[in-house]
Specification:
The protein has 205 residues and is α+β, with helices and mostly antiparallel strands. 55% of the residues lie in helices and 8% in strands. It is built from 9 helices and 4 strands. Strands 2-1-3-4 form a 4-stranded mixed sheet, with helices on one face. Strand 3 and strand 4 form a beta hairpin. Helix 1 crosses helix 9 and helix 6 packs across helix 8. The radius of gyration is 17 Å and the shape is globular. 34% of the residues are buried.
Length: 205
């Protein structure tokens, strides 16, 4: 059985969807934000950040994109990604890294801007604005190729990763979707998947 450590609305959402899509047995464990609970969590994940995934053999993973790629490979019959070695899998890896290194990173600058300056809040607003602009720009770029999925006609777990990250857009989503109408259609399509609807409900209880 897998153990998934996360928080509502965090990067654990896409990983939980992957586990549901794969039909894998797992336990979902919420990690609080209190200092003592975070410190205890460091015994599992030394970064102290969610998500963390404990594999059935006891191996601990952090970094949500790595977890998604691993689960796609570990559960090939779930069709979470194209076959390893195929050209489609190369594109899958490309977009997974793009989403992690660019979209996720920009979201961190939006919501945790003080981390990115030795002056703390003094530079936070400028960092937040730059992060927000980068976040929207990266999403606009990937949305241009949605047809209707990230990889074209076939769903992959990259679509759930994109769906999760796009949901982190600050304020009204209408502004984002007016810039990227294909992303709006994509979000509706992914939200309708049974595994996504189930995990969304779990994260909003």
């Amino acid at each position: 059985m897998y153990k998934l450590y996360g928080r509502p609305g965090s990067g654990s959402l896409a990983v939980q969807v992957a586990l549901e899509e794969a039909g894998a047995a797992y336990e979902r464990i919420w990690v609080g934000r209190e200092a003592d609970e975070v410190e205890r969590f460091r015994a599992i994940n030394p970064t102290g950040r969610v998500p963390a995934l404990v594999l059935p053999d006891g191996t601990v993973m952090f970094e949500s994109a790595a977890m998604l790629i691993h689960l796609a490979l570990a559960h090939p019959t779930a069709a979470l990604a194209p076959r390893a070695g195929a050209a489609g899998h190369a594109k899958f890896l490309q977009w997974m890294v793009f989403l992690s290194a660019n979209v996720y990173e920009a979201a961190l600058r939006m919501y945790y801007s003080a981390r990115y300056s030795s002056h703390g809040e003094a530079d936070a607003e400028a960092i937040r604005e730059q992060g927000t602009g980068d976040f929207r720009g990266h999403l606009a770029l990937i949305s241009q190729g949605l047809a209707p999925y990230v990889l074209g006609s076939e769903y992959s777990i990259a679509d759930t990763y994109l769906y999760m990250l796009a949901s982190w857009h600050p304020g009204e989503k209408s502004e984002l979707y007016s810039r990227a109408p294909r992303l709006a259609a994509h979000s509706r399509q992914i939200a309708a998947r049974p595994a996504v609807a189930k995990v969304d409900a779990d994260h909003t209880q």
